[in-house]
Amino acid sequence: MSGRIFTPVPYTIIPPADKFKDLTMLSFDPDSVDLPAGHYINGRQLSGKGSGLAVKRPSDGRLAGELAQADAALVDEAVNVADRAVTESGWSHCSPRQRAAVLMRWAELIQRDQRLAQLEALGSTRPIHDVVNHEIPFTADAIRFYAECADKYSGDVFPTQDASLGMLVPEPYGVIGAITPWNFPLSMASWKCGPALAAGNAVVLKPSELTPYSTVRLAELAVQAGLPAGVLNIVQGSGALTGSALVAHPLVRKVSFTGSTQTGARIMSDAAFNGMKPVTLELGGKSPQLVFDDAGEVNRVAERIVRGFTANGGQACVAGTRLIVQRGIADALIARLVALCQGFRPGVTWDQNSSYAPMIDARQADKVQQIVNAARQQGGEILVGGQRFDATGDGYFWQPTLIANVTTDSPALQEEIFGPVLTVQIFDDEAEGLALAAHPTYGLCAGVHTLSLERALRAMRGIAAGTVWINRYGRSGDFIIPTGGFHGSGIGKDLGRQAFEACRRYKSVLIDF
Ligand code: NAD
Questions:
Q1: Residue 371 belongs to what H/E stretch?
Q2: Could you tell me which residue ranges the Aldehyde dehydrogenase domain spans (predicted)?
Q3: Is the shortest distance between the CB of 285 and ligand 1 below 6 Å?
Q4: pLDDT, mean over the chain
Q5: Which of 3.40.50.2300, 3.20.20.70, 3.30.360.10, 3.40.309.10 would CATH assign to domain 288-478?
Q6: Which is the closest atom of ligand 1 to the Cα of 444?
Q7: Domain segments of the chain as ranges
Q8: Contact 270, 428 (CB under 8 A)
Q9: CA–CA dist 228, 315 (Å, integer)
């Protein structure tokens, strides 16, 4: 491998965030925020070629800007830039400690950048308070975690015949293509870029065309932190035009994707027919919340359940959207859930007092409406919600909704709705509860609520899901715990050392002496 070793930016201690010291001053005027132009390639913003896409603000449905799409030629340019940069800059073969220092510094810049927070709040469904207190620290910490991984995981030495030495030598792939969804633009980008960069790869990332802006700022901060220009590039555009060109590019050696199961299947097939490259697929879910009679204090359980299906307006892959509750606790729990659901209020994401997320766009709001209407027509009983907060206003805020008596074939029970809708099913014994928890397509997560250790462990074993949360619902900030689905919910893991190791390929070496 040739190329110079990049000159690392000296690692300095950055003082704590001054911008966000006063957390009572977070509100901002969305029209005052400059939107980054188009793509980010070779350390520069590029307004780009190709036809434009309208990008709307989820909170009020107003046009934020036109997005130039990268066509196959521009994707080719970005991938070639990345391929050259990763070797010529020395990023792939410098000391892992040097990479770690750059990533640590990047995390510091992320955590104190007001512009990044505003771009995320303006362009996505995340209220500014939530962005500053959760999304940004979560993003920065994921990158710190992978900085720490850079020199922690080695290869292997095998017990071979006497006069030979067998080894497994990890090396970076080169260029990794990353594709992210709109529901958590920053943290999803950090889950892809953190491990890939720490392992010595370059990345070309395509964010969702619905939430393009904050990711460009993220890449700009990486270069400010000392990442060599060209090692992280952002290309904008639709999945059909830009995403598929990225997956098919011969110099993209691995694809890391988060999004819907349908798109994941397409990407797996495109990757198979364009170089047989490995894919990591983090896909959709329809996760059960299994509540037993002995779940403990009803209020606390209800709060967990409500957080689990309303976070980000229900637009979370992990949303726990199927309540499966044992008869003895059902009435008390449902009454408490209905009361809690009535406490939500809509509010634009740039207002510091807002805490409830809008739907990403009109299409998503309509999809939720259609599924709720279909459930109603099939005899489903709407216990609370069932409509938008303001059917005529701009922005698409959906009321938290509970539906009982859903038929087994109802789309409300079968499909990933991606809205704040919880179906309710009641069971009598454990075996029936576990049978209801199974889903024919998805296996992303499950919540189990019981104070019986034995029952909890039986349920954990009995549910086919990549993550089982017992007496909690949702991730912690423990990035060592990987995440990923079974069946139609995906292949491979994000987070944990598994994601780092999946960003390297392993060469078997045998030496005779
Ligand atoms: P989506 O599949 O529509 O799009 C995801 C990304 O793929 C976007 O950037 C899109 O432009 C791109 N894309 C679309 N078609 C493509 C193609 N043919 N080739 C290449 N790229 C293509 O998903 P979405 O609506 O943006 O996000 C919501 C989905 O993401 C939900 O299903 C949700 O469960 C899932 N998700 C999963 C996880 C997880 O960790 N498992 C996390 C977040 C979101």
A1: helix 362-377
A2: 53-509
A3: yes
A4: 94
A5: 3.40.309.10
A6: 41
A7: 39-283+491-509, 288-478
A8: no
A9: 35
pLDDT at 160 over 50: yes
Rg (CA), the chain: 23
Q: Is the CB of 466 under 6 A from ligand 1?
A: no
Fold assignment, 39-283+491-509: Aldehyde Dehydrogenase; Chain A, domain 1 (3.40.605)
At 181, list the tokens.
Answer: 């969804």
Ligand 1 close to Cβ of residue 187 (< 6 A): no
Assigned token pair, 359: 């739907």
Ligand 1 centroid to residue 408 C-alpha, Å: 26
Which residues share a beta bridge with 290? 324, 448
Written as six digits, the tokens of 331 are: 């009435």
Query: Residue of the nearest CA to atom 26 in ligand 1?
Result: 181
Element (H, E) at 129: helix 128-130
Distance CA 360, CA 315 (A): 8
* CA distance to 118, 135, 165, 217, per residue, from 34 (Å): 10, 21, 58, 11
Beta strand 421-427 with 52-56 is unpaired
Tens of pLDDT, residues 77-96: 999 999 999 999 999 999 99
- Tens-place pLDDT, residues 385-422: 999 998 666 789 999 999 999 999 999 999 999 999 99
Q: pLDDT by residue (tens digit) across 293-326?
A: 999 999 999 999 999 999 999 999 999 999 999 9
Mean pLDDT of 487-491: 98
Select from 387, 432, 380, 433 the least CA-distant residue to 410: 380
